[in-house]
Structures are given as C-alpha cells and as structure tokens.
Design a protein that fits this description.
- Helices cover 75% and strands 0% of the residues.
- The protein has 198 residues and is an all-alpha fold.
- α1 packs across α2 and α2 packs across α3.
- It starts with a helix and ends with a helix.
- The mean pLDDT is 89.
C-alpha cells in the first residue's frame, strides 16, 4: 500500500471515528450536551482535528442524521418487498417505521428534531422523504385500485404521515404517562381506518 492510500485510509478512519463517538456520546448524554470538545476528547485528538473533518457540530449532526435516514430506508424497502398488495405494503411500511423509531430513538430524535433543532435545515437529500414517498405510492395504488380519485393521494398520504409521526412524537416526549400498547393500538386502528377510507 502506497503512502497516499495509507493516509487516505487513516483520514477515513478518523472521520468514521468522529461520527461513531459523537453518536455514542449522544446515546449516553443526549444530543443537547454534545460538543466538539467532548468529541475530540473521546477520540483522543484535539478539537482542531475534528474541525479538519467537519465545519461545525451541525455538520456532524447532519451526517449522523443522514446515516439514520439511510438505515430507515433500507428497513422500509425490506418491509415493502415482503408483500404484493398495496394495503399490506402500507401496513408493513408504517409498522416498520414505528419499530425503527423506538429501536433507534437517538437517530429518530436527531432526524426529526424531537426536543432539539432539526438537523440538516436547507440540506435535504433524497433519503429524507423516503417514508413519505412510499406512503404516497401505496396510497395512490390503493386509490387507483378502488376506482377513487387519485388526485387525493397526496393529501391523504400527508395526513397519514402526520398522524404516524405525531403518535411517535407524543410517545417519545411523554412516554411516562402514556402506555405503549395504547399508542400502538391507536396506530394500527389509524392505518386500518385510513386504508378503508381510500
């Protein structure tokens, strides 16, 4: 391996280490307490080294949130491929989204700015709208299959996304006084009623 390749590999390793340590710190201390100084201490480098790789903390948060959206997208595609009918696909997609949110709370909170500023303002990428796009496609296909007006697909899919995200947000921000089973039951009933209404 040449000197250039070795240096490039070392740079990639340090960059990956910065992101991993930032995520680990967030899991233990919360996103609000994350700082460049803490990240630098965790990777055992000085703060200027971190700034060599990322302009600021926001750039680190954006990169981590993008990783979260990519992970979510993979899970959603996997769930969708298990079923043929748009009704079953929609149910599976929403269920997978719900499970992802609570299995990966730190990612979800950062991705959507729950209890903090949303990361990536003005830097939206394709991955950010994956869930909404998949809901729209299923909704459109169900409406078309039922012979209803396909012009309603956008409005209806946006309403479902809002309901799902709202339930998750309530659960995450007030989970001490709301039973998990009640929210999941509400979610399942919402999706079933939504499909029936199309």
């Amino acid at each position: 391996m040449g000197l250039h390749e070795r240096r490039q590999r070392e740079k990639e390793s340090i960059r990956a280490n910065i992101l991993q340590e930032a995520f680990t710190l967030a899991k233990t201390e919360g996103w609000a307490s994350l700082s460049i100084r803490k990240i630098a201490d965790a990777i055992e480098y000085s703060a200027p080294v971190v700034y060599d790789y990322f302009e600021n903390k926001e750039a680190i948060l954006f990169e981590i949130s993008l990783n979260g959206f990519k992970l979510l997208h993979k899970e959603l595609v996997k769930a969708q491929k298990k079923y043929d009918s748009p009704e079953e696909q929609l149910t599976a997609i929403v269920d997978t989204y719900w499970k992802f949110a609570f299995k990966n709370k730190e990612y979800y909170q950062l991705m959507f700015g729950l209890g903090m500023q949303c990361s990536g303002k003005g830097q939206m990428k394709e991955e950010f709208s994956s869930f909404q796009d998949m809901i729209y496609d299923c909704t459109y296909n169900i409406i078309k299959k039922n012979g209803s007006n396909p012009d309603n697909a956008c409005h209806m899919s946006h309403a479902l996304f809002s309901a799902v995200h709202g339930l998750i947000s309530i659960m995450m921000m007030r989970n001490t006084d709301i039973p998990a089973t009640m929210n999941k039951t509400t979610l399942d009933e919402t999706v079933a009623a939504f499909i029936k209404s199309l």
